[in-house]
Amino acid sequence: MSRHAQQLRDHDINPCVAETDASTKCMDDNNYNKDMCTAYFLQYKSCRKFWHDIMMQRRRNGVKPEMPSAEERKKMLESMGKPY
User: Cβ atoms within 10 A of the Cβ of 1, count?
Assistant: First the structure.
């Protein structure tokens, strides 16, 4: 697996691995008919937007690292419920 592909699978780098997997599985299950997987695509898009907004807020506040770790994200989601 290429380094880039490994980073996309890393839960500390990519907060939306589960959503990526779900949309890929939907595409596989539905013979790559995109119309059948719209809900999964929207879920992924919402996930990316949510964590991008968090990252930008942390950057503005000078918090490092800009993307919370997987453990930190899990605690955040548990405290607020899954917002996406």
Answer: 8
